[in-house]
Task: structure prediction
Amino acid sequence: MNLAVAFDWSFLTENGDELLAGLRRTLEVSAIAIAGAFFIGLVLGAARAHRVPVVSQVAAVYVEIIRNTPILVQIFFLFFGLPQIGIVLEPFTVAWVAVTIWGGAFNTENFRAGFEAVPHRFREAGFALGFGRLTTFLNVTLPIGGRIALPSSINTYISVVKNTSLMYVISYPELTTTALNINALTLQTVETFTTLAVTYLIIVWTMSASIRVVERRLALPEDAR
Amino acid sequence: MRYATFMAIPFRSTTEPPEGTGHAPERQPLDLREAVSFDPTCEVSVATTPVEAGTMVRLEGVRKSFGDNLVLDGVDLSVDPGEVLVIIGPSGSGKSTLLRCVNLLEPIQAGRILLEGEEITRKGVNVSAIRQRIGIVFQQFNLFPQLTALDNLTLAARRIRKIPRREAEARAHELLASVGLKEKAHQHPHQLSGGQQQRVAIARALMMEPHVMLFDEVTSALDPELVGEVLVVMRNLARDGMTMLIVTHEMQFAKEVGDRVVFMDGGRIVEEGPPRDVLDNPKEERTQQFLRRTQLSHTLEELTIDEEGGSE
Ligand SMILES: Nc1ncnc2c1ncn2[C@@H]1O[C@H](COP(=O)(O)OP(=O)(O)OP(=O)(O)O)[C@@H](O)[C@H]1O
Ligand SMILES: [Mg+2]
Result:
């Protein structure tokens, strides 16, 4: 019996609305987290690369903590740990905060590496034309280093999307949680997991495809690195 | 006629054996009309020097060290408006550092540097404004790789000077034409040859309407056949009255275009004077030694590694 035959298509018609609502939440949390991770990575990555006092050290500690602990532990900390000190967060808040912080840490490293890979001579060319430190960063380091950081930061964004599925542990009804809840009632395991897998595949494929377009557009020639 | 003389010079790269060694490939006199298709109708105005300024650039007792390494050991130098000063000297003698100090890319430890009578090494100067008055071109062209030639030229003008894009681009097109790159405005640096990139870099520096231009071995990274097209641009600039400080190993160029030559060694100026004197009849032993080496006018066995260099 192959999968196509085993797949009960009524699963989709009967649970479609609920699944779409879950998908919407997944995309919502992902979008917030990707935007957040982009800004965190940009600012802290720049601070790290330029060794901005204090900010750079704080960023280093943040990156170490997030990169060296399981994201599940981070989610639990936000959801179960913080209430112990009087901070109670909604599941939705925990969901986007957790993946934003996680993605931001990885993106800080992506951008730091990108900015540090910009040959100093380009920065110097900026200074020589009369750009100051900040404007050299904005006009020279950012456009060149940002492009170098692009592929790795995109991988981080993809991981952010996939990590939203972990919100199952706090019962935030994003796509995975929704599907598993439906599964618990209907016991249609094949349908549940096939639907889940295909949906995530489509999201990630769409992301990497659009990204490849962007990358090709922005690509620096080899010898520019 | 000076122009005619210039056209007939076979530029020689330092990487090539000189005539007379027998192995040198036949070197055609470089026909510059062919190498670079300049737009003869295109008049580019370079900033003219204010009459009242006595000297354009003046260094007084400039000392610069990196840690324990004293790189400029009390350099005194002044360059008149419109003058073309050529700086030569062995590797490590501080030539690049001197230019970088003038452009405030390196701080100095003692002495002072004046630009058009204004001390630029004092505290609290507007570094950005000073640097806009001083163009610099590096050995590695350092064009912004993500931008077209045109955008490389207009970026600083638009972002720093806030010149409207149209105006900046009009000026950039003129400048690109003046360096023979009218057709290359929309190419990215990696699509251009080294000589073309370097000409874009010169045009980019000129965009800010500098009062003085610094050139640090701008032809050293180029294939020999591309050297001429860059030197022509510099020669034209000199003719237009630009004040220039040029670090180069192109001795023929130094003689043709330089008004004065300075020989540096060990962070000091050892000898200076008109090109014919310094290059053809150097008084100082170290200058003679250096010039012998660059001309390779004797056999390799006579040369030893420690012959050049050390201060004193
Ligand atoms: N950023 C730096 N940090 C430390 N030392 C430096 C730095 N830049 C230059 N130096 C040292 O200063 C000395 C002079 O260097 P400089 O580049 O000015 O010489 P140069 O005359 O331009 O030589 P070359 O012909 O090889 O370009 C050298 O001993 C060099 O090692
Ligand atoms: Mg040098």
